[in-house]
Amino acid sequence: MASLVWTMPTSSSAFSLFSRCSPTQRNFVAGRSLAPNAVRCELTEPVNGNPCVPIISEQTLPKFLQSKRLENAIARNGNTRLKIFSGLANSALSQEIAWYMGLDLGKIHIKRFADGEIYVQLQESVRGCDVYLVQPTCPPANENLMELLVMIDACRRASAKNITAVIPYFGYARADRKTQGRESIAAKLVANLITEAGADRVLACDLHSGQSMGYFDIPVDHVYCQPVILDYLASKKICSNDLVVVSPDVGGVARARAFAKKLSDAPLAIVDKRRQVHNVAEVMNLIGDVKGKVAVMVDDMIDTAGTIAKGAALLHEEGAREVYACSTHAVFSPPAIERLSSGLFQEVIITNTIPVLEKNYFPQLTVLSVANLLGETIWRVHDDCSVSSIFQ
């Protein structure tokens, strides 16, 4: 397995939106070719289980983003009406977002009382400002969700003009419908809580299902992280004729089909599974041909890794040469690490929407940063520009 090694940029402008590994590779964002001086990835051996986080130079920034940054550089540096605050759930990602945007994180004081109650106080004025609160509702989901709600309430009571909840990972998204009698639809409940707390807009990454956007009575910007993973896969020296994209279940077929279309319209395979109870998957059959091919399994999240691990075992039984796992959200509930590091996968590619603890690192793990993508999306929302054009 090969890992990427990137040099650390020396300024906030050194982040770019997506990785570019060859001048001739397809630009998934703007549909254009890259500049001749684009930087090529350097492939080396694994770094003893430490995941690589791609950080690239300004030279690789797509042209339409370069011009936009130049036009707004002065205005952005002097902008005092946009404030970014971070919760405690993923402060590293918040720092990266602020770095990309050329801003400093807002000062905020968050603490727990002895009985576990959450206290939030803003340490600077937000009156009349557009405020962005970065807080994924990842495990511990209830703690982080409540922290987000209290942060929103603090901003509302401090007379912020607009409050946007930036939720890289939206917890409770799987409870988006009733599959059995007497079940709750927790995704709708959480959406109501965020709205009633005072949020004016939500910015979320790769929701479990698109219907979750309809649960909010406020605007929702849905950020797709696929381009980040696609650009990384483009750096792999894999012949397009050898690729097959695999959906680990029937529910993810639409996601996998969109992914396959961007990978030179690769063929699609589907793992048919039957789930008896939550977090326990039973693989039944494979639809499609994977013999002698490099299989890329695509899902929105990896929780206990039961679904994707059993799917990978089936792919190997059916003759797949290599299996890659690609997922936006790395929940990694036990025993996910044991399953993912068991040798079934050539590489496990995730993003940093959820922080990965160092104890959960393993040699096949690669972590890609979505900070540039979120930072650019925040600027476009603030500037009243199109967000969807990023993903066209």
Automatic annotation (TrEMBL):
SUPFAM superfamilies per UniProt: PRTase-like
Biological processes per GO annotation: 5-phosphoribose 1-diphosphate biosynthetic process; purine nucleotide biosynthetic process; ribonucleoside monophosphate biosynthetic process
Domain of life per record: Eukaryota
GO cellular component: cytoplasm; ribose phosphate diphosphokinase complex
Catalysed transformations (reactions): D-ribose 5-phosphate + ATP = 5-phospho-alpha-D-ribose 1-diphosphate + AMP + H(+)
GO molecular function: ATP binding; kinase activity; magnesium ion binding; ribose phosphate diphosphokinase activity
EC numbers for this chain: 2.7.6.1
Ribose-phosphate pyrophosphokinase N-terminal domain sequence ranges: 82-198
Signal peptide: none
Keywords for the protein's UniProt record, in alphabetical order: ATP-binding, Kinase, Magnesium, Metal-binding, Nucleotide biosynthesis, Nucleotide-binding, Transferase
Gene3D superfamilies: 3.40.50.2020
PROSITE patterns: PRPP_SYNTHASE (PS00114)
Sequence similarity: Belongs to the ribose-phosphate pyrophosphokinase family.
Protein name from the UniProt record: ribose-phosphate diphosphokinase
Organism: Olea europaea subsp. europaea
